[in-house]
Design a protein that fits this description.
Layout lengths: L5 E4 L11 E11 L37 E7 L2 E9 L1 E6 L4 E5 L3 E5 L4 E6 L9 E11 L10 E5 L6 E4 L2 E7 L26 E7 L4 E4 L8 E8 L3 E3 L2 E3 L3 E4 L6 E4 L6 E8 L7 E3 L2 E3 L2 H14 L20 E3 L5 E2 L9
Antiparallel strand pairs: 1-18, 2-9, 3-8, 4-7, 4-9, 5-6, 5-8, 6-23, 7-10, 11-12, 12-13, 13-20, 14-19, 15-18, 15-20, 16-17, 16-19, 21-22, 23-24
InterPro entries: Pirin, Pirin_C_dom, Pirin_N_dom, RmlC-like_jellyroll, RmlC_Cupin_sf
Protein name: Pirin family protein
Family: Belongs to the pirin family.
Length: 343
């Protein structure tokens, strides 16, 4: 039996996080069919366009004006990990890089010294709905990496290790899990997750009704672990009943027996890592170690725009073709494995 489980209601987003994580949001939007211009074929009257987080009719426009998503905005000093389970995301940035990804892909962006990027949710289908579901996770950078060169890494769905067992699917975006297919994916080199002592793991766990699985103990002595029970009816951990809609902090050094006693599939997101243990100064899109560094980040952005914005508008969309791709700042074009022209 686990010695203790600390439970925290999830409440309104963002979800509560712990060092080394800074932010976690689950976007789950049931967008209608598209209007042929990548926006919803539905009236927008009554929404606060440019800042619509209403969830009205099961979806939001967020900061988008015509296309849902997040037009150009700056970041410095941390990493975004965007795990897209449904739909397509169009990435564009101030380095001139671009990507279209989704359907199980993950983009890991090291913002480092500073980058401006847009994340738009193009509604490509004009004949049926465009469901879009993703996790946006912010992972802090240690002080020594706050000014690392910005870049992104793509983890295509075909590359991401998974553990498959009867009634059990564990998707391993970061970290190592015995029994998972394939080797662990290497995080970006300047990431806290690239340090062996960091013991960073980002997993999703899916259990069918009456399925059981033992979550192994973490490796590091300082590791913190948090489970987000975001979908399903019921969960048991070491025999203790857990209601949905909570964050669960178990002792990371203990294996946990998970059981789904409900009639519906359940899902958990796990964020795990050893704390960086440094001071955090955060304001809006910048995360530094001191207030002076925050002030400098704002001054640098006002002065340089982190390289400027090379796109014709603040919310670029990459055309009607749903094929996934990534074009990096050096001009290298990347496609999912086995898909010469994307897929």
């Amino acid at each position: 039996m686990s010695s203790r489980l600390t439970l925290t209601p999830l409440g309104m987003p963002p979800w509560p996080t712990q060092d080394p994580f800074l932010f976690c949001v689950h976007h789950d939007d049931r967008y209608p069919r598209g209007n042929g211009h990548y926006g919803p074929d539905a009236p927008l009257a009554g929404r606060q366009i440019g800042s619509d987080f209403s969830g009205r009719d099961g979806w939001s426009m967020y900061h988008g004006q015509q296309v849902p998503g997040f037009p150009a905005h700056p970041h410095r000093g941390f990493e975004t990990v965007t795990v897209v389970r449904q739909g397509r995301i169009d990435h564009s940035d101030s380095l001139g890089a671009a990507a279209r990804y989704g359907g199980g892909d993950t983009q890991w962006l090291t913002t480092g010294a500073g980058v401006v990027h847009a994340e738009m949710f193009p509604l490509l289908s004009t004949t049926q709905g465009n469901p879009t579901e993703l996790f946006q996770i912010w992972l802090n950078l240690p002080a020594r990496a706050k000014f690392a060169p910005p870049h992104f890494t793509m983890f295509w769905a075909e590359q991401i290790p998974r553990l498959l067992a009867p009634g059990v699917t564990v998707t391993v975006v970061a970290g190592a899990l015995p029994g998972a297919s394939g080797a662990p994916l290497p995080p970006p080199p300047d990431s806290w997750a690239a340090q062996p002592e960091a013991d960073v793991a980002i997993w999703t766990v899916r259990l069918a009704p009456d399925a059981r699985w033992t979550l192994p103990a973490a490796c590091g002595p300082r590791t913190l672990r948090r489970l987000y029970f975001f979908a399903g009816q019921a969960l048991e951990i070491d025999g203790q009943a857990i209601a949905p809609g909570v964050a669960i902090d178990p002792p990371a050094g203990e294996a946990l027996a998970l059981h789904n006693p409900g009639a519906a599939e359940l899902e958990l997101l796990m964020l795990q890592g050893a704390p960086i243990g440094e001071s955090v100064a955060q304001y809006g899109p910048f995360v530094m170690n001191t207030r002076a560094e925050l002030q400098q980040a704002f001054a640098d952005y006002q002065r340089t725009q982190f390289g400027g914005w090379p796109w014709p508008d603040e919310a670029p969309v990459h055309g009607p073709d749903p094929a996934r791709f990534a074009r990096h700042a050096d001009g290298q074009v990347e496609h999912p494995p086995g898909a010469a022209k994307g897929g």
